[in-house]
Specification:
The protein has 157 residues and is an all-alpha fold. It contains eight helices and no strands.
Length: 157
């Protein structure tokens, strides 16, 4: 029953974070695997989190398809595609992920994006964050060319 133990632990961590530290809702980063791993103090592994998530989704009888899909579902696909390519610069990749979530938070607060499809919004935030990283870190072309080709292949574009 690791998932129940993990769920209780994470719930307690979020309660502490929400009530005692910031009095704000946690950011999406805090809900990501990296954020949850940091909150747990390395008590759990990424595999534990994946097992818990799959177990919960099975119990809730969720359908894991992309018909429509949320912005974050699309974003997780894009991230998985890039991680599958096996980039060595994990620090740079973490910066790209954080910047992507930052752009999405800004987009969600702006009404003009309300009619934009989730896949287009996720892809745009993802691509802009990669371009930002390349521009600021001087690593032009490291991510964007390969990444976009991989995404096109996976999505059949």
């Amino acid at each position: 029953m690791i998932s129940l133990h993990l769920a209780a632990k994470i719930s307690g961590l979020f309660s502490y974070y929400y009530n005692d530290i910031t009095l704000q809702e946690p950011t999406h980063h805090m809900l990501s695997f990296n954020g949850l791993l940091a909150l747990s103090g390395a008590e759990f592994t990424t595999a534990d989190l994946c097992d818990m998530e799959l177990e919960i989704l099975k119990e809730l009888d969720w359908n894991l398809t992309l018909s429509g899909g949320s912005v974050f579902q699309w974003l997780e696909i894009f991230f998985a595609v890039v991680m599958h390519a096996g980039y060595d610069d994990m620090y740079g990749w973490n910066l790209v992920q954080e910047k992507t979530y930052e752009y999405l938070e800004r987009a969600f607060k702006n009404d003009q994006f309300s009619s934009t499809s989730p896949s287009a919004l996720a892809l745009e935030a993802f691509c802009v964050s990669i371009k930002h990283h390349e521009r600021t870190k001087g690593c032009k072309g490291i991510y964007s060319d390969t990444t976009l080709v991989l995404i096109e292949q996976v999505l059949g574009l």
